[in-house]
Design goal:
The structure holds 2 protein chains of 2 kinds. Chain A is α+β, with helices and mostly antiparallel strands. Chain A has 13 helices and 7 strands. The longest helix of chain A has 28 residues, at about 1-30. By secondary structure, chain B is an alpha+beta fold. Chain B is about 45% helix and about 10% strand. The chains are: A alpha+beta, B alpha+beta.
Chain lengths: ~400, ~230
């Protein structure tokens, strides 16, 4: 019985290694600073990686997917130590089976204790994913399931070993107790530490991008063209080129806020709606209704953050409504924020929004959102997701004279 | 016999867990280097002013001459062009000068003044606001003021200047646009050059239905955004 239960723990550990490996692979692929599809499947390797937005994408890009983000580009993926730990648990089960120590109580209880680590971690990460991120990642669910089932098998193993009478003289090994397992915790640590060390050692050199990607030719925008997004009054001046109905802008705002680095910035937004109703630089409306929402933010700068938060929260509803009925977005924003009534759609505010777009022309910035400029220097577009904390920390620490950066 | 098996298993598990991440990260690093060494892939368009299809080289040449002479393209230049200047710098006959603006019909309007008046009334202001706010990617806003032939040439010249300046004053008073001086070009043509003909009656006008005689059309300031990069 204990042998079969130990074999079950090995099987679940291998499942854990499998899922954690794919999660680590997806994360590591992004270290080239490009956008990649990810394996959002219970059958990774069978189903191909997808670039579609999914719970996996949300989870991967969230601050919970890795640690030490300011020290390493992207940080250390939490799935990596998981991969090492599952590998250890697989080895540990094999060790017990090969040496016949699966019957020993001390070994069974150590197995249970060791499996408690991925189980507890899974509970915490699962809570964060479901409650904080409101996203379900299939690879993560694979890891959570492996942890839970492995722990259940380990618990059954411990229970069986506990109930099993001492088998003196029956040919099984005598239980050496805790001392006999003293090598196991350090060995587990090695299994976790070595993959981390290998990962860190293999990291590319990102120093070429730490100074940003170019700079604004005319960083001093007239104050009435920008709306405050908060941050610290004496912080580094930061301009976010954003479209209130652009999902990536919502993502950047979320990551910036989660990083805590927004508190070191004095943040203002240049509204750049990718909506041909007001923006001649786009040939079709990527985000219909963005012009109306942008105008509302300019109409009431004191309420701009609230309007932006509302727009982020209701992006699909606003764009769908505007697609269905022209002017719907304006009606929605006016209904939600009555103070902008009579202002949204007026010639004066339209002209101000247009001046903002012309400021973008004078700085020859790309027609895309979001873009982040700190102290006049542009954070490379490729560094606004996983690499945001790493890059921004270095840009904020760099002396003001260190301008330019990668082109 | 058990120890070697255990060691082999341990090495297998540990090597797998260590080598794979190392390999994946190395591959990502290699890709990053290759991408940075390769020619930059197509990126998003750069923000730029509009350049409409009607902006032919010939039109641009005329516009450039007019704008330079009217103090827009060179700092410190004289603001505004008088009839003689306009005729000279445009190097065009009056009809040909007006024809330049025909492709801009949907971006232009005729602000019609009362006879002998140079003040914008409410409907004039509304049309100026509507057209000026519809700048989009246009770079230059032309105000071409005229007078009907009643009265002396000199008086009409001054009256058309007053009308052009009335539009500019309205823009200054209502739009805090620091680019105004670089965007707005004034021409006052009096009764001497490029009088509007009946075809402009169909354009956006601030005057009523009945104010469509040639004299009515020329007691005016013609305004238009020009979507040309010079």
């Amino acid at each position: 019985m204990t042998r079969n239960l130990t074999l079950a723990t090995i099987a679940f550990a291998l499942f854990g290694v499998f899922f954690a490996s794919y999660a680590t692979l997806d994360f590591a692929n992004h270290l080239d600073r490009q956008v990649h599809g990810i394996h959002c499947s219970f059958l990774p390797g069978v189903e191909t990686a997808s670039s579609e937005s999914s719970g996996c994408q949300v989870t991967l890009m969230s601050r919970y997917s890795s640690v030490f983000r300011t020290k390493l580009w992207g940080g250390l993926p939490v799935s990596l130590p998981g991969m090492g730990l599952f590998a250890f648990l697989g080895f540990w089960g094999a060790f017990l089976v090969v040496t016949g120590r699966h019957t020993q109580r001390s070994a069974a209880f150590f197995t249970l204790g060791a499996w408690a680590v991925p189980l507890l971690t899974s509970c915490v990460m699962g809570y964060l994913a479901l409650v904080e991120l409101d996203a379900a990642c299939k690879l993560c669910i694979g890891i959570y399931s492996s942890s839970t089932l492995g722990f259940a098998a380990a618990a059954a193993l411990a229970w069986t070993a506990w109930k099993r009478p001492p088998a003196f003289g029956s040919g099984t090994q005598e239980d050496p107790g805790v001392r006999g397992l003293a090598f196991a915790p350090p060995l587990a640590a090695v299994f976790v530490a070595l993959p981390i060390a290998a990962y860190v050692a293999a990291m590319p050199d990102y120093s070429a991008y730490e100074a940003g990607c170019g700079q604004l030719a005319h960083p001093d925008a007239p104050a009435d063209l920008l709306v405050s997004l908060g941050g610290s009054a004496g912080g580094h001046p930061a301009i976010e080129v954003l479209d209130p109905l652009c999902p990536s802008c919502k993502g950047l705002e979320s990551r910036l806020s989660a990083s805590g680095l927004d508190e070191q910035l004095s943040r203002r937004a240049l509204l750049f709606p990718l909506d041909d109703a007001c923006n001649w630089m786009v040939t079709s409306s990527l985000h219909p209704g963005a012009c109306a929402v942008s105008e509302a933010m300019l109409c009431e700068p004191d309420q701009a953050r609230a309007i932006l938060a509302w727009a982020f929260e209701n992006q699909p509803a606003i764009t769908s409504a505007e697609r269905a009925t022209e002017g719907a977005a304006a009606r929605m924003v006016v209904e939600q924020f009555p103070d902008v009534r009579g202002c949204v759609g007026s010639a004066r505010i339209g002209q101000r929004l247009n001046r903002g777009l012309r400021w973008a022309v004078s700085n020859q910035i790309p027609v895309l959102t979001p873009q982040l400029f700190v102290d006049g220097r542009k954070v490379c577009n490729e560094d606004t997701d996983l690499g945001l904390e790493y890059t921004l920390t270095r840009m904020l620490a760099a002396p003001a004279a260190a301008q330019g950066g990668a082109q | 016999m058990k120890l070697p098996i255990v060691l082999v298993l341990g090495a297998l598990f540990l090597t797998t867990a260590t080598a794979l991440p190392f390999l994946w990260v190395k591959q990502a690093g290699t890709r990053m280097v290759q991408l940075s060494a390769a020619e930059a892939p197509p990126t998003a368009a750069v923000a730029e002013a509009a350049n409409a299809s009607y902006c032919t080289p010939e039109l641009k040449a005329v516009l450039r001459r007019v704008l330079q002479s009217c103090g827009l393209l060179e700092a410190g230049g004289v603001r505004g062009c008088q009839p003689a200047d306009a005729r000279q710098v445009a190097s065009l006959a009056g009809a040909d000068f007006n024809a330049l603006f025909l492709p801009m019909a949907d971006r232009a309007g005729v602000i019609q003044f009362e006879q002998n008046e140079g003040v914008l009334d409410a409907s004039d202001q509304a049309l100026v606001d509507r057209i000026f706010a519809d700048q989009r990617g246009a770079s230059y806003f032309f105000v071409v003021a005229r007078s009907s032939p009643e009265g002396s040439v000199r008086y009409n010249r001054e009256l058309s200047e007053t009308r052009a300046n009335a539009v500019l004053a309205h823009l200054r008073a209502n739009y805090q646009d620091p680019d105004l001086d670089r965007e707005v070009g004034l021409l006052w043509l009096g009764e001497e050059f490029a009088q509007l003909d009946q075809q402009f009656c169909a354009w956006q006008r601030s005057g009523g239905e009945s104010q469509c005689r040639t004299a009515d059309l020329n007691r005016s300031a013609f305004i238009a955004w020009i979507d040309c990069q010079l």
